[in-house]
Amino acid sequence: MKNPEDYCNIIYDNSLADWVCKGLKTDKSWLEGEYHTIGFKLGNKLLGGLIYHNIRPKRDLWMTIYTADKRWCCRRALRVIFGLAFNLWQVERISILVSENNNSCIKLVEKLGFKKEGVLRRYSDDGSDCLFYGMLKSENEWSK
After folding, report:
1. Res. 33 pLDDT band, cuts 50 70 90
2. CA distance 40 to 19
3. Which residues lie below 8 Å from residue 16, measured CB to CB, with a gap of 6+?
4. Which of 51, 71, 81, 91 gives 20 to 30 Å between its CA and that of 60?
5. Would strands 93-99 and 60-67 be described as parallel, antiparallel, or unpaired?
6. How many CB atoms lie within 10 A of CB 141?
């Protein structure tokens, strides 16, 4: 990637929450209260979106992500993602749920440094289990 247009752009746009939810085959009814959404674009193509929700500044927040293209995941995007959580909202932990059937997501969150903390049995709409992951601020290597 030699040209600036070859790099993923990060945009702040709460309307992307609809796109994320559609990709996850759900509606926004689970999004209560304040939430913030960032998107990852390459040219005019939307590669992914991330929703920060259930934000309790200086405590914790939840992240939900949907991607249509793995090119969104670069060091710069990860610095922004974790920088917003740990530096802007100054949370002590980030939580994320992953379907037990989503092996690529499981590999990604573990590679990013999330620790598996438990299993929510038959939690998904289809009756499958979800894995509960967390990352403490002290474990974060991306926004330092």
Report:
1. confident
2. 12
3. 37, 38, 39, 46, 49
4. 71
5. parallel
6. 10
Is-contact 133 117, C-beta < 8 A?
yes
> What is the C-alpha to C-alpha distance for residues 72 and 20, in angstroms, rounded to an integer?
14
Q: Is the pLDDT of residue 83 over 50?
A: yes
CA angle 31, 129, 25 (to 5 degrees): 45
* Closest by Cα among 62, 130, 49 to 94: 62
Express each pLDDT in 122-139 by its tens digit. Answer: 998 889 999 999 999 999
Q: In what order do the strands lie in the sheet with 130-136?
A: 9-12, 35-42, 45-56, 60-67, 93-99, 130-136, 115-120
Q: How many CB atoms lie within 10 A of CB 77?
A: 21
- Please give the structure tokens belonging to residue 19: 């796109």
